[in-house]
């Protein structure tokens, strides 16, 4: 990772003005999200992509997530193409916004820590969108999550996971847990790495995610009042599936994501 990646200092004189117009927009968008989850998703939440045809509910999820990103001053940028139909997406993890960022480009069921279920707004939206909640440190929970992942993938639904097992600070990409890749082997679906990268003028902003000791609400408010950034979703080359090599699959996925996160020299 480039050591020159920088972030905007906390002393930002325009922050109060951004709150002034972003908060009302966010409240309106929340109401739209309630209507979306209450009517559209309940009406046909189990639709899946078949032969590359994206169902209406998936397009609605993408549109709402794209709108949420814009309210936070984040412009979603897709690089590459997501694989069609059922896929196991594996991505780096920076903060709660990662779920909405990937959802702005491709609807999927996420695996997330159980604490997110209690977060304001985000927890409710995540549950409504089919998120699979996992209690960290619990082998029983992990076994249950793995089975649900396999079931969802076999049903034709894509699943997205953060194999680091937690958020990395200051742009650090942690080791990927290999066990999570077993679900793709059992369901016989492809694995596609996804690099989530925040940038301004092409320069990676490593401070967009959680800071050390920063909680959800602090990060939420900091991003809501922050200056505009590009939020890039890099869909990378699929990882070859090896029946006896899930550790190698994890290592290769991490290598490809790490390379995509690097700043490109002009």
Would you list the SSEs in sequence order as H and E? HHEEHEHEHEHEEHEH
Q: Percentage of helical residues?
A: 40-55%
Uncertain parts: none
| Head-to-tail CA distance between termini | 15 Å
Strand content: 15-25%
Mean pLDDT: 83
Number of beta-strand segments? 8
- The tally of helices reads 8
- Cα radius of gyration in angstroms: 18 Å
Biggest sheet layout: 8 strands, mixed
Describe this structure in words.
- Helix 1 runs antiparallel to helix 2 and helix 2 crosses helix 3.
- The protein is α/β, with parallel strands linked by helices and 266 residues long.
- Strands 1, 2, 3, 4, 5, 6, 7 and 8 form an eight-stranded mixed β-sheet that branches.
- It contains eight helices and eight strands, in the order H-H-E-E-H-E-H-E-H-E-H-E-E-H-E-H.
- The mean pLDDT is 83.
Secondary structure blueprint with pairings:
Blueprint: H1 15-44, H2 56-71, E1 74-79, E2 88-91, H3 97-103, E3 109-113, H4 122-128, E4 132-134, H5 139-154, E5 159-161, H6 182-187, E6 191-200, E7 203-204, H7 216-224, E8 229-235, H8 246-261
Parallel strand pairs: 1-8, 2-5, 2-6, 3-4, 3-5
Antiparallel strand pairs: 6-7, 6-8
Task: Please name the defining characteristics of this protein.
266 residues, alpha/beta, eight-stranded mixed β-sheet, 8 helices, 8 strands, 15% strand
Short précis:
The chain is of the alpha/beta class and 266 residues long.
